[in-house]
Amino acid sequence: MGRYVIRRLLQMVPVFIGSTFLIFFMVYALGDPVAALFGDKAPDPATAARIREDLHLDEPLWKQYLLYMGAIFQGDFGTAFNGQPVTELMASAFPVTLRLTLVAIVIEIVVGITLGVVSGLKRGRPLDTGLLVLTLVVISVPTFVSGYLLQFLFGVKWGWVRPSVSSEARLDELILPGVVLALVSLAYVTRLSRTSIAENVRADYVRTAVAKGLPRHRVITRHLLRNSLIPVVTFIGADIGALMGGAIVTERIFNIHGVGYQLYQGILRNNAPTVVGFVTILVIVFLVANLLVDLLYAVLDPRIRYA
Amino acid sequence: MTTIDKKTSATSAPLLEVRDLHVEFHTRDGVAKAINGVSYSVDAGETLAVLGESGSGKSVTAQAIMGILDMPPGRIPKGEILFHGEDMLKMSAEERRKIRGRRIAMIFQDALSALNPVLSVGYQLGEMYRVHLGLSRKEAKARAIELMDRVKIPAAAARVNDYPHQFSGGMRQRIMIAMAMALEPDLIIADEPTTALDVTVQAQVMDLLAELQREENMGLILITHDLGVVADVADKIAVMYAGRIVEQSPIHDLYKRPAHPYTRGLLDSIPRLDQKGQELYAIKGLPPNLMKIPTGCAFNPRCPKATDICRTEVPALVSVTEQDGGELPGRGSACHFWKETIHG
């Protein structure tokens, strides 16, 4: 197990270098950050040249990348155009997004798995068919539609919640945005656990559990659910990374100043240090989440042993 | 909880008696009549072998007794299953659950798929004690180790936390047996317990089962399609075909003198060393489609002796006697021509 973790951590190194270099290449090579810095005004050539030298923009790309990586490992993610260190932006953005992701994941797990289990146990009945149609609708509707719709209904028309989230982004304010963010994944979790349950409910070991005289709830929770959740856990684990980085639309709709919001601003203004810095962190989140899922897999299914 | 009266039936009713049981499955393609009037009984300490091909209804009968049929699509339109004289089909779901595992236990064919792959065998064995007797996790584990010792699994204490896939096929089946034995039930139903095993291991597992049955004086229903397996352990045998019992008999009589052409066909198709080199006999044709069971005797399309009456009239299970009318206790055949078959 220990050796497996070390090997996986080592495998992360090339993936990390490759993906960050790609981002670095795209952001720095495809636009001129100095021109972007001056906005619409044309920069004074001498000033521009000085900035380029300060920021090592006159160096070849590979050298820029090495310098950047070297700085990152000393905790220096550079400075955004407004003079704020990128780390400061991160410190304000990541906790907000983390809270939003947490709300979304909890909703996804609790609601998604519950619906999936109910649906799977009632396969072919009206309830199951209804849920299948409903999830299909949810999957088909883009987030910006469902987001604005729910915001309008709950926030404006009925006034149950405030339509936009305050800068503190407290947990209770994040419930509606969390639902919006979770919606599509929730539909997938429902379908995934439904299929898994419906498949396993006919398994021999479930029949054995019934033949042992176990009460129905015990058959379902201890025997059926435990086996059926293995693929669902994999999906949810991979989804954590996607939710953290993919909250751009949701965060914009509800005016949440999290990772998605900062990334959006960064891309809009061609603000290279912000974009590269945030994406780098997201790459790490993805890699770690995937490793954790694989390790969890072995915990859930003893037939899988890593060596 | 612990004072459920066990083995206290003072009446003379058999341990288990199935009476005129019918089971059908409603599917999209029609109604499959899996069981069409099966009756048999088992006493304490007795072993009944139920023999038949796939689809003959032998497993469905067992599932109906256990109460683990999928209903729907399954349905029991008619029949009684008397356990200590009480009809289990009239009991509430909760009453039946309490009988399952505790007083009637079942051993399944393929232990690898019948055991939960993600739970340790100790947990799965201990669960019987925790749920039915309310023992603590720790006590249940200690009892699980005792059980594993009892079914002769080496180093039980060291292996109690292992998972099913870490055991060999024979050891896994021993665990299945241990699970069935856990609460010392009155009756065990073993559904092809040795089919998935190597021949050498088959005998060991069968011996173990027979030994435990003797010690506990349990009733045993042994479901099999293998005539060789049952010869040494069963007291009596019921041969099933298309959801009916076609012949029943004390075990050794059946081998000597079958009273139904189907049984004869089964016996003739056992490979024998003294007929090495000759072509092996096989019953021609296939078992019937349960949605379209032939009229008359269900076996008539495959029967070498079939005549017109076999195609129109369903033969009843009648007592079989000696040629001079002398009684043959326990013997019955559902063939219009049982006399010719047994004596001819």
UniProtKB/TrEMBL annotation, chain A:
InterPro entries with a match to the protein in the record: BPD_transp_1_N (IPR045621), MetI-like (IPR000515), MetI-like_sf (IPR035906)
Entry keyword set: Cell membrane, Membrane, Transmembrane, Transmembrane helix, Transport
TM annotation in the entry: 12-31, 96-118, 130-154, 174-192, 228-254, 274-300
Cell location: Cell membrane
Predominant cellular place of this UniProt entry's protein: membrane
Residue intervals of the ABC transmembrane type-1 domain: 94-297
Its membrane topology: Multi-pass membrane protein
Record-linked Pfam families: BPD_transp_1 (PF00528), BPD_transp_1_N (PF19300)
PANTHER family: DIPEPTIDE TRANSPORT SYSTEM PERMEASE PROTEIN DPPB-RELATED (PTHR43163), DIPEPTIDE-TRANSPORT INTEGRAL MEMBRANE PROTEIN ABC TRANSPORTER DPPB-RELATED (PTHR43163:SF7)
Family: Belongs to the binding-protein-dependent transport system permease family.
UniProt-recorded name of the protein: ABC transporter permease
Organism lineage: Bacteria, Bacillati, Actinomycetota, Actinomycetes, Kitasatosporales
